[in-house]
Every structure is written in C-alpha cells, then in structure tokens.
C-alpha cells in the first residue's frame, strides 16, 4: 500500500537511535528515548493559502529532518510504523 500525504503533511520514517552510550553502556529498549530524526518518504502538494493558491513544501523526499516531540501521528503501513506530520512541526533539515 502507498500513501500520499495531503496538503502540507509529510510522511517520515523515524531513524533508529543508538543502542549504546558514548561510554559503551548498552541502553535497554525501555530506557531509550525515541529519536526526533527521520527521513522524508513522501510529501503533500503544499500548504493551501487563504487566496486558494498552494505554496509548495520546502522539504522533499529523501531529506533527513528533525521534528518536534509529540507532534507526530503514527500510522502503520505494510507492518512498518511511519510518522505523519505537518510541515510546520519540522524543526530543520539535516545536511
């Protein structure tokens, strides 16, 4: 199944966090925080403006981004958990 986000929404695959600390200590799954980084899988057509026109999104498929905590909506597609966010919830593009 494929999904195309609507308007200013972005579909993101969360990047996996590190399983060990800098000191070499293994972090169990229950103590790990979910990373706030992801890869853009699909983007919508753009933000709908009051005059009826559409402003294209600034991110594109393949971009690695940072996003705000608790801003995402989780969706399951083909047994994979992906995140659906508005472009305004993205904090930046990782270069």
Short description, anyone?
This protein is mainly beta and 95 residues long. It has strands spanning 9-14, 37-43, 47-48, 54-55, 64-67, 73-77, 80-86, 90-94.
How does this model look, in words?
With 95 residues, the chain is mostly beta strands. The protein is built from no helices and eight strands. The chain has a single domain (9-17, 25-94), classed as 10 Kd Chaperonin, Protein Cpn10, Chain O, CATH 2.30.33. 0% of the residues lie in helices and 40% in strands. A six-stranded antiparallel beta sheet has the order 6-7-1-2-5-8, with no helix packed on it. The chain has a two-stranded antiparallel ribbon with strand order 3-4.
Write down the overall mean pLDDT: 80
Main sheet: strands, sense, barrel: 6 strands, antiparallel
Helix content: under 10%
The chain-level structural class is mainly beta
According to CATH, the fold-level topology is: 10 Kd Chaperonin, Protein Cpn10, Chain O
N-C termini distance: 30 Å
How many strand elements? 8
Layout: helices, strands, pairs:
Blueprint lengths: L8 E6 L22 E7 L3 E2 L5 E2 L8 E4 L5 E5 L2 E7 L3 E5 L1
Antiparallel strand pairs: 1-2, 1-7, 2-5, 3-4, 5-8, 6-7
């Amino acid at each position: 199944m494929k999904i195309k986000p609507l308007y200013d929404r972005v579909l993101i695959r969360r990047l996996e966090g590190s399983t060990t600390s800098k000191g070499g200590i293994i972090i169990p799954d229950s103590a790990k925080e979910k990373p706030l980084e992801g890869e853009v899988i699909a983007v919508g057509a753009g933000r709908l403006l009051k005059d009826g026109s559409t402003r294209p999104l600034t991110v594109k498929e393949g971009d690695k981004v940072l996003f705000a905590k608790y801003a995402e909506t989780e969706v399951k597609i083909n047994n994979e958990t992906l995140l659906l966010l508005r472009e305004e919830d993205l904090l930046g593009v990782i270069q």
